[in-house]
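Weekly structure sync - notes
Attendees: PM, LS, DV (DV joined late)
Agenda: review two folding runs queued last week.

Item 1: First target. Sequence and structure tokens pasted below for the record.
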Amino acid sequence: MISKTEHMYAPFVISSIADEDEVGKKVETDLLIQEFLNQHLKLSTYGEGLTGIAFVYIVTPPIDVIHQDEIIYRAKKKELYIEMRLSYEKVVAASDAEVLQMMAQKYLQTFQDKSLWKKLKGFDCKGFSRDVQRLFEEQEWLKVVELV
């Protein structure tokens, strides 16, 4: 995560925590999602409540208890920090295209969760989710892939 004194270098920052080279290579597409979001969306379109979103995919074996799902909103900086786990076993078994779809689905599902909406004041989560879904569908990143 980014320290409390730093600011994000882009509105959308996406990375991953992954074990092993094979799994790490599969989730390198996080940069593709980051570049795509930064090219096609402006956070200011959805209000003044957010200036940056950092999203980290956790793809480590289940025995890893250090990295857990977490959502932190820093109201003063208007930045949202999210860490979400993808099934390690499913990522290992999936093709690169399926992993990209899993990542896109997890990103969208996180923003469709209404409990997150309550935390973010001055940000249109519903509109943001709708636009992310539309963009991901246009890229065919939301084909049905079972996440659980």
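Item 2: Second target, run right after the first with the same settings.
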Amino acid sequence: MAHLLNLTAALGAHPWWAGKVIWLGALPGLAVALAAGRLQLPRWLTAGGFAAFGAAAFAVASTGKARFAASYAEDLLAGQFWYFGWIAVCMLAAAALATVARPAAQAR
């Protein structure tokens, strides 16, 4: 759905790779959510942690974008922060959504 709506490009990802970062982050995000679910932590704590780290990754990606643009595309490290920051945002968003959508544990 995010790919069809071009959500990442609207939020600040480069249009050239905005769709790619969704798919690069989705599968690792689901794996992280599965691993976190095996720890049997409270769902609100896990989803809140993913959301907080996702917000931090968004801040890193936004800062990378600003520094990359200010350098007229010469600061390669800032460009990598922008790109990999967006992969982290997509990974953590997928993990948070998968955690919230996870079925509740049955009481024994």
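Discussion on item 2: The helical segments are 2-5, 7-11, 18-38, 43-70, 76-101.
Action: LS to circulate a short write-up before next sync.
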